[in-house]
């Protein structure tokens, strides 16, 4: 049985729809990311789960119970806010203890649990500090300990790492994943950073304009994006228009002077294919012909820009000593059919 | 299972994106060049302050040391007789006590009214918020005399308030508001509440709006959130607002003069009467200086208390 169910969740603000009939199921112990650009509805969704916003339509059930019937302070969720939202007038230990106090945990148990939680996030000796006297990374850890100590049914993380610098962010990603493994809490992570989502999650939910674009494992979404938005949002991609046709050998897509067999089920007619720059190689035959417009050395790899009849393409080749074409050279580019995602033309808009 | 406890210095240094806000400016080191520029640049301000504040104040202080007699006028002597007179006379004790009783009551009521008002204002949505803020600040836009006369019309024994209460049968005889402390306190609260609202408003602006949600998600109900999370964070605002309100209430002149009249003197009206009715300028100056000193002692004392209590949290 699914643990958390969002069913046709909708939130309208005056003049626009932030979340549009969003349905999603989350399994227990899973770390799932809501990923999308700002204004895609990911934070609104999180706020509805937390109870800070009321949906206009739809249902949320957690472990079989109707979550919308409960007030925010009765839902028993842990939340880590983007701004951390620590209580500035309380020490780190008092911050962590607050949720336990609200649950009437006895003093002795409380002290022990607070110490354990601070130890879990590596802040054993910082209990007496006020938030003002802590670094951003330390505040982040206190916020995490405060949310975890109440043993929440669900931990919601709202852009938890966006206020940290690059080095701290990487450290916290590893830390977060380790904690998630060790405590096994179901987590929902809201982020606009695709690399963060891919590094941390079991599954990603790509959102745009309040609608789900794709729900898949990070690798699946990267390799086989459901549409152009997902393809572009999760890293760089080449999107080429083509024509999907039913032939004697099966379904194939024609792009300019080349043709690839289609492995997915796509209706015949105008279509498009998306292929990652690093999946493209220079081939001798059966490829798309073009001219190298530019090549840039990037240390571990070479970046090529190739002008073809179907459009300008980006190609990445490893710097492994192989012979690579020069600028202005006529080349032919190709890729394996399983490395591309084919979609109907309307999905590519 | 836990990561190695990072030591303080490395974490602080590693987390360069959020520098600690508590870094004090470095004290001037020996050998650093002494520059006159900042002092020269602040000279106009210092001059203005000196000419319009320090000199008159010093003159008042000197005047308070002179003596006065009905037939001889002001004599150029330097004695503390006036201070001794006031400190020994129960008539003056009563007036000073009344002044600070009124100021304390006004401060208390302003805090009780202004803090919730500021909180409610902050939670309002856009068009209503600015409208209500304007209404709150309204008393400051009206001349103190016309505002106080308005209160006199409302509070008088045949005023609107008493007539209304009589008509409703709630009271049998008119309540005395005019020439009583109650009346003065009511009128002063009306004009001083905006200062409290603005001060609390400023401290609410610094409050992270997510903090209330955070407390709620941890299981706190609305009253617990207010009591444990919001209130402790706006206490500095309430206290600094209280200092402003107290100082203004203790030195208020127009409102006690009109509502309190001759019967109910406070320190400010006493000083006025000594200057303009009795013509005993030295005594008036002494009252003014004593009022100033008492105000400074109370305000500085309160400020110290606030700073010590909240140093660690809010500096």
TrEMBL record, chain A:
Domain annotation ABC transporter: ranges: 4-234
Transmembrane parts of this sequence: none
InterPro entries linked to this entry: AAA+_ATPase (IPR003593), ABC_SmlMolc_Importer (IPR050093), ABC_transporter-like_ATP-bd (IPR003439), ABC_transporter-like_CS (IPR017871), Mo/tungstate-bd_C_term_dom (IPR008995), P-loop_NTPase (IPR027417), Transp-assoc_OB_typ2 (IPR013611)
One GO term of the biological process aspect: quaternary ammonium group transport
SMART domains: AAA (SM00382)
Cleaved signal peptide residues: none
Entry GO terms, CC: ATP-binding cassette (ABC) transporter complex
Pfam family, one: TOBE_2
Single Gene Ontology MF annotation: ATP binding
Alphabetic keyword roster: ATP-binding, Nucleotide-binding, Transport
Entries under PANTHER family matching the protein: SPERMIDINE/PUTRESCINE IMPORT ATP-BINDING PROTEIN POTA (PTHR42781), SPERMIDINE_PUTRESCINE IMPORT ATP-BINDING PROTEIN POTA (PTHR42781:SF4)
Protein name: ABC transporter ATP-binding protein
Organism: Azospirillum cavernae
